[in-house]
Amino acid sequence: MSLLYALLIGAIAGWLAGKLMKGGGFGLVLNIIIGIVGGVVGNWIFAKLGVAIGNGLISDVITGAIGACVILFIAGLFKK
Fold this sequence. Notes:
It comes from Gaetbulibacter aestuarii. InterPro entries: Transgly_assoc (IPR007341). This is GlsB/YeaQ/YmgE family stress response membrane protein. It is found in: Cell membrane. By secondary structure, the protein is an all-alpha fold. It has one domain (2-79). The protein is built from three helices and no strands. Helix 1 (2-20) packs across helix 2 and helix 1 packs across helix 3. The mean pLDDT is 84.
């Protein structure tokens, strides 16, 4: 069940990050990958900042989306 949960959260977070960063996303598979990696990056960022985030669906999506936005921002710097 945790793999399915990670895929679902990754897909939502990747899609949301694509909308926030005006990129429109990269398709379902890449959005899931960006969202999952974004969750890891988001957790790392919040840990370094000392910010405690809750456990739950909404906080996981927000964390993944913020991390995915960071990844998309950095990718945009290399793209130009």
